[in-house]
Recover the amino acids of this structure.
């Protein structure tokens, strides 16, 4: 199995699955892991989030985000991205992140939202540490 370079990790997460699993430190000390959508903006992962995961990040911003794909060991690939997450609090910035995410999914400009949905937040994660695997390259 071969790991991926940082450049290859970004290629993979930009062109690969649009879902990953966010792990935060739960209020009871157990990991809290949930599947969430994301997109890449510059070096940051922009992750849509709400509820308990926001409370967890506000209490402890250290998170792990795992993205993987494949159907069996011959083509399994993925990356684990660790860092300190930032909850985007500013409403104007949250609206722009929402609009950008929808643009990337093909929504026409005239169909983009002009206001936030209630409770809609985003997390910015700039990876500080990564690990990866790509069984297809062995």
């Amino acid at each position: 199995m071969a790991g991926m370079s940082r450049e290859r990790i970004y290629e993979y997460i930009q062109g690969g699955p649009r879902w990953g699993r966010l792990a935060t430190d739960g209020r009871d000390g157990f990991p809290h892991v949930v599947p969430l959508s994301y997109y890449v903006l510059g070096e940051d992962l922009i992750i849509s989030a709400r509820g308990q995961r926001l409370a967890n990040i506000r209490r402890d911003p250290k998170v792990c985000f795992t993205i993987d794909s494949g159907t069996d060991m011959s083509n399994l690939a993925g990356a684990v991205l660790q860092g300190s997450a930032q909850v985007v609090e500013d409403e104007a910035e949250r609206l722009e992140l929402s609009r950008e995410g929808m643009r990337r999914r093909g929504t026409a400009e005239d169909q983009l939202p002009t206001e936030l949905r209630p409770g809609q937040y985003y997390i910015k994660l700039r990876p500080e540490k990564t690990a990866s695997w790509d069984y297809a390259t062995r």
User: Anything to note?
Assistant: The chain has a mean pLDDT of 92. Residues 6-137 form a domain with the Pnp Oxidase; Chain A fold (CATH 2.30.110.10). The chain is about 25% helix and 40% strand.
